[in-house]
Amino acid sequence: MAKTILIVDDSSSLRLVVKLALNRAGYDVLEAGDGKEGLAQLEKAGKVHLIVSDVNMPIMDGIAFVTEVKKHPRHKFTPVVMLTTEGQDAKKEQGKAAGAKAWIVKPFNPPQLLDAVSKLILP
Question: Pfam families from the entry (predicted)?
């Protein structure tokens, strides 16, 4: 059975690039345009094996989203990769404190993302 990955990003073109790379690698993909939508997707979804989230989004940003995800017993151990234009150490520390396991700065190349995903995704 394919592993399911949730992409949370307000850029539909970026979600498409990430989705294509993940689909080609054999993953099922769910999408959300912001953190609030991401939480709704997690509620509806069965098992989500990994989350890829942007930091800067309207309604609920990535850090707040990850903080909320980690409060939920079902998703507490779901690995989160932040995929963002933010490269400052302070932001990375906020992400880590919220529960993010990896930080990839845009622009990114799909092999870099797939490498991080394959290392973090739970069996």
Answer: Response_reg (PF00072)
Domain containing residue 65: CATH number: 3.40.50.2300
If one counts every other C-beta atom within 10 angstroms of the C-beta of residue 41, the result is: 17
Residue 12 corresponds to which tokens in the numbers above? 């539909």
Q: Which domain holds residue 18?
A: 4-120
Tokens describing residue 108: 């990114």
Residue type, 70: K
Write out the H or E segment, with its range, that includes residue 5.
Answer: strand 4-8
Domain count, the chain: 1
The tens digit of pLDDT for each residue in 97-113 reads: 999 999 999 999 999 99
Give the C-alpha separation, 9 to 54, whole Å. Answer: 5
How far apart, in whole angstroms, are the C-alpha atoms of residue 119 and residue 106?
A: 19
Cα–Cα distance between 11 and 34 in angstroms, integer? 9
